[in-house]
Request: fold
Amino acid sequence: MQKENLKYVSSGKAKDIYENSSGNLVFEFTDRVTAFDGKKKSEYDEKGEITCKIAEYWFKIMEENGIPTHYIECPTPTSMLVKRLDIVPVEVIWRNYVAGSLLRRYLAGDITLPQGVGTEEGSPIPGGMIEFTTKFEAVDRPVDTDEILSNGWLSEKEIEYITDLTKRINNIMSQELASSGIILADFKVEYGRTPDGEIILADEVGTPDGCRFWKGDDFEKGVITSLDKDVFRKSIGNLTVAYRELFSKLQRTNI
Ligand code: 5GP
Reply:
C-alpha cells in the first residue's frame, strides 16, 4: 500500500491504522499475532492477507443482510478502507459454546455458568449468551450492564440495540458456516458511532483472530479442532495453515 498520502494513527494487536486525506481510516492487516494481553507474540507469513480477505468476506455478507458496518473497500490485498467512527468503549462477545475465558473464569470460581450448561470446553449454551468487556483499558475486563450504564458508555436502549445486532451477526455467520461444516463457538465484535449518532459494526468481523471456529465433523466425534487463534494460544500448529484452511472452507465464491 502507498503510504505517502496516509497519516499514521495507531497500531493494534494485528493491524496498523492510518488516516487518508478524506478522513477515512485505512487498516493495514499485518502478519503479527499476540495473545494473553500481548504476553505471547509472533508473526506468521500471509496471516495479514488471509485475515483481511476473511474480514472483507464477512463485511460484504453483513451488509447484504442489512447489518450496517464501517466497511468501504479493500484497496490492496492487505488493506481495508473504513469509515472513521467514535468507537464504543465496550467490546461485545457472543458465545454459543463454553470455551476460553468463560471456562477459565468458571474454573477460578469467579462466575457461574447459565443454568443447565455443562462445565467442559465445548458444552453448548442453548440460545447463546452475550458478554461485554472494556475496550480502552490495558486488559479487556468483563463488565456488566450496570457498570456500562453508570459509566455512560451506552444507554439502555443502545445495549438492547447492540445485543440484537450481535445476535443477528451470530445467526448470519452460524448459518453461513453450517454449510461449510464449521461451528462458530464464539466471537467478539466492536461498534462505533457515526457523526449522525448511528451505531454500526466496526473493527473486523468473522476473522479467526476474533472468533473461535471448530471443525464440525471432529466436534461430532468429541474432538475440538480449532481453525482460529487458539492454534497460536495453545501452540498446537501453524497459524497460517489453520487460517488458510478456514478461508478455503468459506463457501461463497461470488463475493
Ligand atoms: P475469550 O473471552 O473466551 O478469551 O474470547 C471470546 C472470543 O472473543 C473469542 O472468539 C476470542 O477470539 C475473541 N477475543 C477475545 N479478545 C479479543 C481481542 O482482544 N481481539 C479480538 N479480535 N478478539 C478477541
